[in-house]
């Protein structure tokens, strides 16, 4: 198996976790399977950089003297707000030569500024998707997924999504056993599917200000198979159905029905990904009642049926991995 050289681009204002998260994943894979990855870090002039949190990172050298990478990884951070033209120029020149080009968080802004995302689908941190789309109309920005693959280019959402993407790349380069060993060592999920939303239902909606409504949000999440009609939820909040529906929308930014739909879909996806429960059992546990009702919800929201979703996103069972040395 050929050794892959990974080049991490460093710059002032970089987000430290955008660098160290993926680096720990690839470094863990190298420890598990020596000779797999050669990791190199570089800044424009080879000097230390100060991260957005104040941490100083010392690179291995300058970008111009760095080894030609198989994977060029560009992290994000405050330093992408006003990109250094020398950095975007370097990326414009050398980025196309990399067999695999990866960005974490707002690193996608640097790739876009270098013209490397034109005509491609990409994502970034949810708070910067509008900016990316506005400033770079040639890029198709998808604000939903935690990471997006378009050919040899992969872009990811904020911070921890870089770890998910790195684990997916390790699984692709080596195998699932190595990726699982690294994930267990770092105590993270092996693989959140790339199309998983950046926000859970609870985070996507605003948290209600009043305790009765916050309690209703918690109740919905904990009881997706329960009676979650407006009338039932209103009675639990001790409000009239009309008052409850109006107050819920004002405080959360969505209607009770849409919130329930998203919680149930999220719950069903998690069961399909993480368990061997049958589609009928998943549909009942998630509050759909019947497989057909769940199928309609999946097709409407995701464009795929539950059984096909499971085939695409639930890994096949494998043997237990060897521990990381």
Name of the CATH first level of the largest domain: Alpha Beta
What composes the largest sheet? 7 strands, mixed
Strand order of the largest sheet: 5-2-1-6-7-11-10
Give the SSE string.
Answer: EHEEEEEHEHEHEEEHHHHHHHHHH
Helical fraction equals 40-55%
| Rounded average pLDDT | 89
Q: In percent, how much strand structure appears in the residues?
A: 5-15%
CATH topology description of the largest domain:
Rossmann fold
Domain HTH araC/xylS-type: 214-312
InterPro entries: Class_I_gatase-like (IPR029062), DJ-1/PfpI (IPR002818), Homeodomain-like_sf (IPR009057), HTH_AraC (IPR018060), INH-QAR (IPR052158)
Organism: Streptomyces collinus (strain DSM 40733 / Tue 365)
Pfam family, one: HTH_18
Concise structural overview:
This protein is of the alpha/beta class and 325 residues long. Helix content is 46%, strand content 12%.
Structural features, described:
A hairpin with a 5-residue loop joins strand 3 and strand 4. The strands form 3 sheets. Strands 5-2-1-6-7-11-10 form a 7-stranded mixed β-sheet, sandwiched between helices. Strands 3-4 form a two-stranded antiparallel sheet. A two-stranded parallel sheet has the order 8-9. It has 2 domains: 4-186, Rossmann fold; 201-313, Arc Repressor Mutant, subunit A. The protein contains 14 helices and 11 strands. The longest helix is centred in the last third of the chain and has 19 residues, at 256-274. The protein has helices spanning 16-32, 85-94, 107-113, 129-135, 160-173, 176-186, 201-204, 211-222, 230-237, 241-252, 256-274, 279-285, 291-302, 306-313, and strands spanning 4-9, 37-43, 49-50, 56-57, 61-62, 71-74, 100-103, 121-122, 140-141, 147-150, 153-156.
């Amino acid at each position: 198996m050929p050794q892959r050289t990974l080049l991490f681009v460093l710059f002032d204002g970089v987000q430290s976790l955008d660098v160290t998260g993926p680096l720990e994943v690839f470094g863990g894979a190298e420890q598990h399977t020596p000779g797999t990855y050669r990791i190199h870090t570089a800044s424009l002039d080879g000097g230390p950089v100060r991260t957005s949190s104040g941490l100083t990172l010392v690179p291995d050298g300058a970008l111009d003297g760095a080894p030609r990478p198989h994977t060029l990884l560009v992290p994000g951070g405050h330093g992408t707000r006003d990109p250094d033209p020398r950095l975007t120029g370097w990326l414009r020149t050398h980025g196309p030569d990399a067999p695999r080009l990866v960005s974490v968080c707002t690193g996608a802004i640097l790739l876009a500024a270098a013209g490397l995302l034109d005509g491609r689908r990409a994502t970034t941190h949810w708070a910067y998707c509008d900016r990316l789309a506005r400033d770079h109309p040639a890029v198709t920005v998808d604000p939903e997924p935690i990471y997006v693959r378009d050919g040899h280019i992969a872009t990811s959402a904020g911070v921890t999504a870089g770890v998910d993407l790195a684990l997916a790349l390790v699984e692709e380069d080596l195998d699932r056993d190595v990726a699982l060993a690294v994930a267990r060592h770092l105590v993270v999920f092996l693989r959140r599917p790339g199309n998983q939303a950046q926000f859970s239902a609870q985070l996507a909606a605003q948290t209600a200000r009043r305790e009765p409504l916050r309690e209703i949000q918690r109740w919905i999440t904990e009881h997706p198979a329960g009676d979650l009609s407006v009338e039932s939820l209103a009675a639990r909040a001790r409000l009239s159905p009309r008052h409850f529906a109006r107050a819920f929308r004002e405080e959360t930014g969505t209607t009770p029905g849409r919130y329930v739909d998203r919680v149930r879909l999220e719950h069903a996806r998690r069961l399909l990904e993480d368990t061997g429960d049958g589609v009928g059992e998943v549909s009942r546990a998630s509050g759909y009642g019947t497989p057909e009702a769940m199928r309609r919800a999946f097709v409407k929201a995701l464009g795929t049926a539950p059984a096909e979703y499971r085939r695409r996103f639930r890994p096949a069972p494998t043997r237990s991995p060897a521990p990381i040395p």
